[in-house]
Amino acid sequence: MKIFISHSSDDSAYGNALVDLLRGLGVKENEVIYTSNVAYGIPLGENIFNWLKKQIIEKPYVIYLLSSSYYSSVACLNEMGAAWIVENDHTIIFTPDFEINSPEFQGGALDPREIGFFINNEERLISFIELLRKSFEISNNPVLIHQKVKELLKIITTQQNQPPLRINSKPTILESIDTPVLLPEKKTETKQNVDNIEPVKPNLKSSGYYTQFLADIDEGKLNNEELLLIYYILDTTKVKLGTGWQEASEIQYIREWEDIKGLNSNLSNNYGSVLRRFELRNYTEISALTGSGNPKEVSLIGIIQEKVLDFPKRLLDIINETVKHNSTVDIPF
Fold this sequence. Notes:
The protein folds into two domains: 3-160, 3-Layer(aba) Sandwich (Rossmann fold), CATH 3.40.50; 194-325, no CATH class. It is built from 14 helices and eight strands. It has helices at 12-24, 48-57, 68-71, 74-86, 103-106, 122-132, 142-160, 206-218, 224-236, 247-261, 266-269, 271-280, 302-307, 313-325, and strands at 3-6, 32-33, 61-66, 90-94, 117-118, 240-242, 284-289, 295-300. Strands 2-1-3-4-5 form a five-stranded parallel β-sheet, with helices on both faces. A three-stranded antiparallel β-sheet has the order 6-8-7. The chain is globular, with a radius of gyration of 21 Å.
């Protein structure tokens, strides 16, 4: 028996908190299916759709993490429909701002009369944990259970105080797996060589790094693959990226993402060189090391992390245009 967390990538912060809760209470690593974390997601070499179909057919316990983003995602609705047909045992959990009276939920595949609960409801969380005991080895230590639930609630409270992940109220190319939006043509940018990149001057103040980051995009200094990596970061809300021995896993994740988005393989084929460009431009810093002291993860520097979801529309248009030129999908005019 496994637990499959069906969710939108926009809600990965809530999904991560659920995974931490489950793992902390005794659910084993190989009993969790959660595609926003490579440790619990699609294995290397697997086709994303075939793999997910196989997992659902094997009838895992499904957690539907419902939000407005979930109902805006074709992939999520496909997951819901497939699991509903197979009649998997499941639990419905709402993100804190979800409207349970929304027409999408009231008229969807899931029965709106079925009891679900909001993820920040402590009493319901305890009941949910007890329900999982029927199929999974859950700790009997009440103190541990209480601690883990409190940890989850603290994370949820913090997340609620963060700016919303959605860049606009309407779906944009940075949120959709559907046909990219057409934007006006722009001049083709000149391919740069890593050796010709001038690093940002080290005496810039912290806020200057973000200003320089925006200026580089606006002035056309970033090449095709660099803009695609920014799109990947925005679309998946991943500010930490695998490098070193974790680079292969990140590349595989990007390939699956490119497949879903209908993009060519320019980013996955050039991921290593793009990371080096970002390092030279002072966009990233090492965020995790191996036991022997080698980098295994990099992240956007703090000031860029804080502001990356607040892009000016003009710069989003530049990124959208790059995505359009790297799309493998025919876009009707």
